[in-house]
Amino acid sequence: MVTPGGTTAEAPVSAWAPLKTAVYRNLWLALLAANVGTWMQTVGAQWLLIDERNASTLVALVQTASLLPVLLLALPAGALADTFDRRNLLISVQLFLVVVAVGLTLLTATGRMPPALLLTLTFAFGVGQALTLPAWAAVIPELVPREQLRAASALGSISVNVARAVGPAVAGVLISRAGVAPVFGLNAVAFGIFAVALVRWRPGNARAVEVPERFTAALRAGGRYVRHSPIVRRLLRRALVFLVPGSALWALLPLVANRRLGLNSSGYGMLLAALGVGAIVGGVLLPWVRTRLSANQFLLVAGVLYGAALIVVATVEVVPVVLVALLPAGLAWVVVLANVNAEMQLFLPGWVRARGLAVYQVVFAGGQAVGAFAWGLLADLAGLVDALIVAGVLMLIGSVTSQIWPLPELRGVNKDPATYWPRLRLAHEPDPRVGPVLVVVTYLVRRDREQEFLDAMDLVRGSRQRTGAMRWGLFREGEAPDRFVEVYLVPSWDEHLRQHGGRLTGADQEAEDRARRLAEGEPEVRHLLPAAAGPALADGATP
What we know:
This protein is mainly α. 68% of the residues lie in helices and 5% in strands.
């Protein structure tokens, strides 16, 4: 397909295409039930605190308590999801959440739910979410074709926002008629439904991990990958610039409903439903938007829409006008975050996908948790209206920065797995735990190719560091200026074997092939192991 500007664009995939896959459809519907329950629980918890002293801070702390565990635990959860069976992990976590929800229901029904205990149990729900999110996000590429990943990400946002529309509305009616306890009870049922769907799911080709990575090594490898991936870091920064001011709306909307608009719990549910409807429309329109606007253009448009909505909510006390303003805010929220999430899923290689998505969840949850707390404090100190106006202005400023620090262009980046290093030939097979391992690669480069070679090796450096190298350096021999020596330090022999056996991608191969084409002949490779590990002769192997 050719755009009006003459560039080639991908043919849009229907927003509903992934639902044609039965396994994905069943799990998506079950997750929808869990999301509805989660939003009902959030509304119930916030409404229990609406009449407490310092209600602005306490209501905002509900969001902080539910999201802070993601900030603290998402990366360990991602390491677990990349290391162990994701289906079993998801089932165990949903059963834990059922137990927490049942306890919350019983304590609320018997009148034994002070604010501190409510926030503690909300934190426990957040722990379950922290363990669920990376595993579920990493499972999605195993359920749908690659070309449907953006649509699947949008459907995930649609699920959350259908829940945001339905959950609060149902919760508002239940709270006004039967109190908060039944809301918490339905949340327990919802998590049970998701657990049953996961039990019924039988993966056709289970993910094979020959030898699971050690937990601490997996954590370090995930952090190292993100630290040395400029594209991932840019995606995370763009999400954070949107999330911090955007969190003000979600954190302070209960107070807008109660104090400025004079609404009860049902009215608050109606406001959330307007946000949810806008988000659903955004999820449906996302494929269409991508064919007509560049990623950075719709970042700008979405930021302006959301910032304007914040200012309208802050300054207008007419319910229909506020409802209309919330529709584009919901649309902007899902268009920005669903796109960033999909770009992360498309870019991250399979071996580190859950850990990379866990870092995204840390940014997502941390931006909202810290932002919600800050906006709650500002609302207590300076007033609700001023807090929302400040958030709106920051959102408008942040949207302009999308033209200064744009999203990276990922088309053409080959992230398919590539096992192109030949089998190692050593004098003996070291213990996998032996380390650190120093890999030395010597290149012969003509003087007229030096600068091109140095530029090419900069890309090789990134590849080495993302896939396992703790340190990397490139040196020139003093006695032979045309000989360049690459050295990189890997934590263990096991880490280096994983570089050989699955961590490399087509983009890594392209970078390395370019550098090798600029050298004369095949590079000479040596592997240096700790002397205490025994004989470690390496003979002409290619890393």
